[in-house]
Fold these 2 entries.
Entry 1:
Amino acid sequence: MLLSLEGVDVHYGHAKVLHAINLHILKGEVAFIVGRNGAGKTTLLKTIAGFLKPSKGSILFDHQPIHGIPPEKVALMGIRYVFQDKRVFGELTVKENIELAAYPTKEKLSDSVNRILSLYPRMDILINSKAKGLSGGQRQILLIGRALIGEPKLLLIDEPTEGLSAGIMEEILDVLTKMKGRISMMIVEQNLSVVSRMADRVYMMKEGSILKEITDKTVIEKSNALEGYL
């Protein structure tokens, strides 16, 4: 077991926003968190990453408790969070964005660049361009590549295909598919066709609770079957 949450509650002030969350991910798995807006999906990722502290319950990562540990320490333990907003350092070049991510891990810059190019070779011609000129899809790929620096064990990715055209979405899916089996991923995603193509495990959320855990591939591979749980 790589990640396990048991009975996790989270509050915003007096309001309870996550209710007795139980979930787990095995090494190498791709798990998707699915649900309508306001279901608590992003809150769940932020809690695992250390940005929010559970009011109850436990989070174990690689058999070590991480609930209550600050996000920078969670990241160094091997969990990286790719935020939803696709925000990069626009005035810096792509290479400089990578260098900033590589610095705390002490990974060689050349190794970090090569890691991203192995996922998305087209980034080579953009390496010395300012990041503000990248498309939304290219920014997402840069952020995913940066999160891989230092060889983490788990990526938390929030809405990787949101707002992207079908063609760019396929590029993102190609990158994620190349990563599958090499690293565990927990992905928040609204597009059920994406979920059906990639998921090993699906958690359906509603109003801060897990309604259903699905591991049956015959159900996962049919996006219309997943819709029945929303």
Entry 2:
Amino acid sequence: MPTLTRRPTGGTVAGMNPPTDLEPAAQARALMRGRDRATLASALPGALAVPQGNFAPWPYASLVLAAVDHDLAPILLLSTLAEHSKAIAADPRVSLLFDGTGDLAQPLTGPRLTVLGHAERTSDPRLRQRFLARHPDAAMYADFGDFHFYRIDIARAHLVAGFGRIRWIERTDLVTDPVSAALIEREADIVSHMNNDHADAIDLYATRLLGRTGTGWQMTGIDAGGCDLRRAGAVARLEFAEPVHDAAQARAMLVALVKQARTVT
């Protein structure tokens, strides 16, 4: 049975942030996995940005929904009619800003992470499933002819964790979560089983371990480092005390966590 030392690391969009005592790469990973949206910045061709001038590319930023894969790669669902898709078609270099400032009275004291990478269109059904589990409402338009999924291959990241706490993080330091083919293969089964048969346990994770409120929380994904939860527009991230690599280890961890949750008052 895993030995657990728990502390909340997930958050709603305007809620809890990763602990500030985490080392920068760990804080960056928790921030990415704990958010379900980001600001996408790309280089919009000058002819589109300023048609009468045909100038050099212009920086262009817009809000997007995001999911994160097992290897930390962000997953996006974009329409070819959107300006950011036109920009990516011309130049695949993008940045994603994951904002953890929430409702802080002094937003600049909160964490935010800019992830640099290259966007590539993908038809991988597993990435589609992972995104739609995170954003179930997107299923209404995901099959429209102009919508496509994109995977962001991370190059590096820039973390601003508050005043004076600024750090560039290289890909080799950021992308360290173990990726297990055995866990990936069983992820959908684990998530479905937890949602259908152990909804009470998921509510305990959210309320007792993460300090959230309400019932009806759903698990949307599980990876080596933790699991993702959602209730309406709120999301939360439950980090594991140690990595899990297959369904058996995931089950043992989830059982241990629900036992711990029942001891919390």
